[in-house]
Design goal:
The chain is an alpha/beta fold. The protein has helices at 22-35, 51-60, 68-80, 83-91, 102-110, 117-121, 140-145, 157-170, 187-205, and strands at 11-16, 40-44, 95-99, 128-129, 132-137, 178-182, 211-212. The structure holds adenosine-5'-diphosphate and 3'-deoxythymidine-5'-monophosphate. Residues 16, 18-24, 146, 186-187, 190 line the site of adenosine-5'-diphosphate.
Length: 215
């Protein structure tokens, strides 16, 4: 980016346990930002459309088995393969709204026996650092009111509780700009809170360089 470069877009991530409302809120946020005249695109991880993403998708659908370290590294590779296009879009002034990122990667794998958070974070060190990570906070009891779990791998109560504990640990890291959101509110109330945080972040991020995650 040269001296004449315009303002960069913001990297905004939504995280949370299953059924917290991430996908609902990402869609509504993108719509609202578009309507306010922002250049914005939505992304989600895993991105199941790539070759790596198809391997991950088959694993999640239990159509294939993969060794736990291998699938962890595939989730990370699935983010790294998108980094060139993410950086390009951000530099061009497009804000990215992302449904799950490296925090899900570290929380889910470290919830498995024999994995520590520190090892799980390593492959994602240096990824584009989100300007804002909103964690949609919802208790397992409240999540259960939003319907049954599906058939995919990881959609098990006990496992999700451990994942929540791992997210709690990740949220203690002050080098990441975390915002906890009470996801038990109505869809519209959650949306208003998320939009306010996002607009503030878009304004501040445009004058700051993009950071490197966990580095
Ligand atoms: P996630 O992407 O975090 O798994 P979703 O956005 O798919 O969550 O939402 C899970 C379910 O809960 C959907 O049926 C959705 O309509 C519903 N839902 C989302 N947000 C709320 C909310 N604030 N209150 C009640 N139900 C919600
Ligand atoms: P959804 O497509 O419904 O969000 O489910 N996961 C996700 C990991 O284990 N590691 C990761 O790096 C990421 C991004 C969370 C995807 C499932 O995959 C898990 C739920």
């Amino acid at each position: 980016s040269g001296v004449m470069a315009g303002k960069r877009g913001a990297l905004i991530v939504l995280e949370g346990v299953d059924k917290a409302g991430k996908t609902t809120q990402c869609n509504k946020l993108v719509q609202a930002l578009q309507q306010s005249g922002q250049s914005v695109e939505m992304m989600r991880f895993p991105d199941r459309t790539t070759i790596i993403g198809q391997l991950i998708s088959a694993y999640l659908e239990k159509k294939s088995d993969l060794e736990d370290h291998v699938v962890h590294l595939l989730f990370s590779a699935n983010r790294w393969e998108m980094v060139p296009s993410m950086k390009k879009k951000l530099e061009q002034g497009t804000t990215l709204v992302v449904d799950r990122y490296a925090f899900s990667g570290a929380a889910f794998t470290s919830a498995k026996p024999g994995f520590c958070l520190d090892w799980c974070k390593k492959p994602d060190v240096g990824l584009p650092k989100p300007d804002l990570v909103m964690f949609l906070q919802l208790s397992p009891a409240q999540a259960a009111l939003r319907g049954q779990f599906g058939e995919e791998r990881y959609e098990i109560d006990d496992f999700q509780r451990t994942v929540q504990q791992k997210f709690d640990q990740l949220m203690k890291d002050p080098s990441v700009n975390w915002q906890e959101i009470d996801a038990s509110q109505s869809i519209e109330d959650v949306h208003r809170e998320i939009t306010t945080h996002s607009l503030n972040t878009i304004n501040t991020a445009q004058n700051l360089p993009l950071g490197e995650l966990w580095k």
